[in-house]
Amino acid sequence: MTQTEFARRCGFERAFVSALKGGLKPPEERLAQWADVLELTGSERAEFLEAGWLANAPPEVSDLLARTRLLATDAATTSRVFSPTETYDDDADRITLLRTIDRLRGERDIAITERDQARAQAAEQEAALRQVEQHLLAMQAAMRAGPPGQSAVPPNERAG
Questions:
Q1: Does 109 reside within a domain?
Q2: What are the pLDDT digits (tens) for 51-94?
Q3: CA 149, 152, 154 angle in degrees (round to 5)?
Q4: Which domain holds residue 66?
Q5: CA distances in angstroms from 103 to 57, 98, 109, listed in the order given
Q6: What would the pLDDT profile of 15-40 be if each residue is shown by its tens digit?
Q7: Could you give the angle at which helices 42-56 and 59-77 cross, rounded to 10 degrees?
Q8: What is the torsional sign of CA 94, 96, 99, 105?
Q9: Residues 115 and 40 grouped into a single domain
Q10: Are 31 and 48 contacting, i.e. CB atoms less than 8 angstroms apart?
Q11: Angle of helix 89-145 relative to helix 59-77, nearest 10 degrees?
Q12: Residues 50 and 116 placed together within one structural domain of the fold
């Protein structure tokens, strides 16, 4: 799939794809849609979504995750046997990473709740404005009709 085709299917301009390639952070709420457009499944989809999330993550999370992955790669390629009673700074990094991720998830959940509440409040305000508008239109129509028993046509416009 070309970048132009991807942009068309996702509903944005080709220039947006270039901006993403240039470092623009992808909007998290669009990642799942993009994975669908790209027809990603299984681990490819999970890696894509994780990469998008990490692009928006604070630098400390990205740095800790990179160090954790590096340590995991090193552990997989060395024959060193780790003692369960030893403590490592790597464990502290992993714990810090997990705590940071939990904190960010909590902040994200709060932001989503606040966004949903703001949307609900905006919908309520819009409904109230529609009611006011309808009331004003009814008042305007009543004013044009004039008092009961009088003609709605102004006196200077009546045929004589």
A1: yes
A2: 888 887 777 777 777 777 777 666 666 555 544 444 555 667 67
A3: 115
A4: 58-77+88-143
A5: 12, 9, 10
A6: 988 888 888 888 888 888 989 999 99
A7: 140
A8: negative
A9: no
A10: yes
A11: 140
A12: no
**Rounded to 5 degrees, what angle do the CA atoms 82, 88, 90 make?**
105
| One-letter amino acid for residue 49 of the chain | L
**3-state DSSP assignment of residue 84:** coil
Cα separation, 36 vs 141, in Å, equals: 51
The pTM of this model reads: 0.41
Tokens standing for 128?
């109230």
Q: How many residues does the chain have?
A: 160
**Residue reference for tokens 């305000």:** 125
Tokens read off for 77: 């390629």
State both tokens at 81. Answer: 């046997």
Helical H segments across 2-149, by residue range: 3-10, 14-21, 31-37, 42-56, 59-77, 89-145
* Cα–Cα separations (whole angstroms), residue 86 to 69, 90, 91, 156: 20, 11, 10, 101
